[in-house]
Amino acid sequence: MDPFVIAGIACGLIALVTLAFGDNDAWFFGLIAMACLLGSTSEVFKDHRFNALVFLLFGTLFAGVALRAVFAARRARKG
Q: Can you give the pTM of this predicted structure?
């Protein structure tokens, strides 16, 4: 198995564990974005350009959601 795939699976599992223990949503979406970007890197090395693009788009989506969750948490703390 490709090392990038193993790292992506590890990031996904860590994200699920953090979500199960009630951690911040920003951590969950950030780790899922990291898993998608690692999957995209793996697909690029295999010359599967369409799959790499799909992983990259989903990684960008989850990174945006993580950034939004960070701002929402900061706004909630301020009052």
A: 0.83
